[in-house]
Amino acid sequence: MHDLLCAVPVLESPRLQLRSIDRGDLDRIYALHSDPRAMRYWSFPAWTAPQQARDWFLRQQHFCAQEEVWPWAVVRREDDRLIGLFTLFAVNRLQRRAELGYLLDSAHWGRGYAQEAARLVLAYAFDALELARVEADIDPRNSASCRLVERLGFQREGLLRERWHVAGEIADTAFYGLLAREFLRG
Ligand SMILES: CC(C)(COP(=O)(O)OP(=O)(O)OC[C@H]1O[C@@H](n2cnc3c(N)ncnc32)[C@H](O)[C@@H]1OP(=O)(O)O)[C@@H](O)C(=O)NCCC(=O)NCCS
Q1: How far is the centre of ligand 1, averaged over its atoms, from the C-alpha of 92 (Å)?
Q2: Burial grade of 172 (CB within 10 A; 0-12, 13-18, 19 or more)
Q3: Ligand 1 pocket, residue 110 CB under 6 Å
Q4: Which domains does the chain possess?
Q5: Nearest CA-CA partner of 119 in 108, 132, 134
Q6: Cα 26 versus chain centre, distance
């Protein structure tokens, strides 16, 4: 297993540094993905065994090598604490689009960290990767996530019914899209 998941550029804002993920982050990544509150509307159930973090790392490494996934660890600059993950995935350079995924430690919600991190990743997506469109697939009941993307300029483009089956629960998708020219940079 290589130590680095993949090399992504460091992105910085006043309170945050977004950097590459390495093997040393796996304990924190396990903690994030095993928090039932943070995983309530995720596409798979909360992890229950640390081995799941190691398996995830190996799977992601494969997609990173194809440049289909660009993952960042969100680190708080004041104490160097990893507080979340932001990812561009399903990156299609030919069609100039990608999906945005994110997860923040529930102890750090409500402080604008997600908004700050999202602006860095979206600026990178539009300016450096020259994408034209970024998408987000959100459970319509996940109001914090809907609020986050709407503040950034995303438009709700449709409702996809019964799209997810997670731990016996069926969920819809509120499908959001953001065009480069609509991005509210803040
Ligand atoms: C989605 C998620 C990242 C949003 O996190 P969040 O903390 O609510 O979002 P932000 O960091 O942008 O914080 C915004 C809130 O902080 C408040 N805030 C406090 N200080 C702030 C500051 N300096 N700047 C901006 N907002 C600030 C805002 O008023 C806002 O509150 P409101 O939403 O009640 O109006 C978080 O809920 C999460 O990780 N959920 C679990 C994973 C998940 O569901 N991911 C999405 C899958 S589609």
Answers
A1: 27
A2: middle
A3: yes
A4: 11-132 (3.40.630.30)
A5: 134
A6: 16
CA of 54 to the centre of ligand 1 (A): 28
* Residue-level pLDDT, tens digit, the chain, 186 residues: 579 999 999 999 999 999 999 999 999 999 999 999 999 999 999 999 999 999 999 999 999 999 999 999 999 999 999 999 999 999 999 999 999 999 999 999 999 999 999 999 999 999 999 999 999 999 999 999 999 999 999 999 999 999 999 999 999 999 999 999 999 998
Q: Are 73 and 25 in contact (CB under 8 A)?
A: yes
Pocket mutation for ligand 1, best pick of 145, 146, 152, 176 (most atoms within 8 Å of C-beta):
145
Structure tokens at 36: 């039932």
102 lines ligand 1 (CB under 6 A): yes
Question: Encoding tokens for residue 39?
Answer: 């995983």
